[in-house]
């Protein structure tokens, strides 16, 4: 099975990459990245494609992805690091651009698009909703709407909303992810508090990586049960932990 990954040098993406590389059912991992990915070094099934413009996908890139079965879109940035308009482009426009390109490339074969959103995202924002919540929620909704467009009907989108992403018990990725503002930067302070007082909001990277990889490998059918929304296509942290058995 051929899977695609973005955001491989980030916290969530590093966990996903480790899962993909160690999963015997995954035969090839194509990594779209702006820079080299040290965690992929030496792995025969890892194909790092250095790609600078995530709004456009030339034929030579898509040719390498035409037989792919799914993607985990873990690329992202903190809303505190960039201006509002740039955050919207990175968080919303880039995944939508790739979804359209990869759908056309892989059609008519069903293609699973797993978008890493975040707990707190909402498709029904209020005056008090943060930029993060609004833009992530809009991306979730637009991916679902895109899959209903006849031109992109082979898409099988999932949006996953992790809580506090915790790499504590994932030694294989230590030193391989970029530090940035947010939970990754302040995790040393916040994560122990979450683990002790609100365990249900913690998302261990090892379990999260396996779960996201599984969605990209699966049949793309809607999910059911507690923690599942949006026609079985959005999984909040409670749903993730339930389905992951943690």
Summarize the structure.
The chain is an alpha/beta fold and 246 residues long. The protein contains 7 helices and 10 strands. Helix content is 37%, strand content 17%.
Main attributes?
single chain, 246 residues, alpha/beta, eight-stranded mixed beta sheet, 7 helices, 10 strands, 37% helix, globular
Strand content: 15-25%
Question: What distance lies between the first and last C-alpha atoms, to the nearest angstrom?
Answer: 26 Å
Strand order of the largest sheet: 3-2-1-4-5-6-10-9
Overall pLDDT score: 92
Globally, the shape reads globular
**What's the SSE pattern?**
EHEEHEHEHEEHEHEEH
**How is the biggest beta sheet arranged?**
8 strands, mixed
Compute the gyration radius: what is it? 17 Å
Number of helices: 7
Note poorly predicted spans: none
Structure class: alpha/beta
Any overview of this molecule?
The protein has 246 residues and is an alpha/beta fold. 37% of the residues lie in helices and 17% in strands. The chain is built from 7 helices and 10 strands. It has helices at 11-22, 59-62, 84-106, 131-147, 183-197, 205-217, 237-244, and strands spanning 2-6, 28-33, 46-50, 70-73, 111-116, 155-160, 164-166, 202-204, 228-229, 234-235. The strands form 2 sheets. An 8-stranded mixed beta sheet has the order 3-2-1-4-5-6-10-9, sandwiched between helices. The protein has a two-stranded parallel ribbon with strand order 7-8. Helix 3 links the parallel strand 4 and strand 5. The protein is globular. The protein starts with a strand and ends with a helix. The mean pLDDT is 92.
């Amino acid at each position: 099975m051929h899977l695609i990954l973005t955001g491989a040098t980030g916290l969530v993406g590093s966990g996903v990459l480790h899962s993909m590389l160690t999963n015997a059912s995954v035969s090839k991992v194509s990594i779209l990245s702006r820079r080299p990915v040290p965690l992929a070094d030496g792995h025969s099934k890892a194909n790092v494609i250095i790609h600078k413009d995530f709004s456009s996908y030339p034929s030579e890139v898509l040719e390498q992805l035409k037989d792919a079965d799914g993607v985990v879109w873990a690329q992202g940035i903190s809303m505190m690091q960039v201006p509002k308009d740039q955050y919207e482009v990175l968080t919303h426009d880039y995944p939508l651009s790739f979804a359209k390109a990869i759908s056309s490339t892989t059609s008519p074969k069903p293609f699973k698009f797993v978008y890493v959103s975040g707990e707190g995202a909402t498709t029904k924002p209020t005056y008090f909703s943060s930029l993060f919540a609004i833009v992530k929620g809009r991306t979730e909704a637009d991916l679902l709407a895109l899959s209903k467009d006849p031109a992109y009907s082979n898409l099988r989108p999932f949006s996953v909303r992790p809580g506090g992403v915790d790499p504590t018990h994932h030694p294989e990725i230590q030193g391989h992810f970029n530090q940035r503002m947010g939970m990754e930067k302040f995790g040393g302070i916040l994560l122990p508090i979450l683990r002790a007082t609100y365990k249900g909001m913690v998302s261990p990277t090892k379990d999260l990586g396996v779960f996201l990889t599984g969605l990209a490998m699966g049949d793309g059918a809607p999910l059911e049960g507690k923690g599942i929304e949006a026609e079985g296509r959005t999984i909040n942290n409670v749903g993730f932990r339930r389905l992951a058995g943690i």
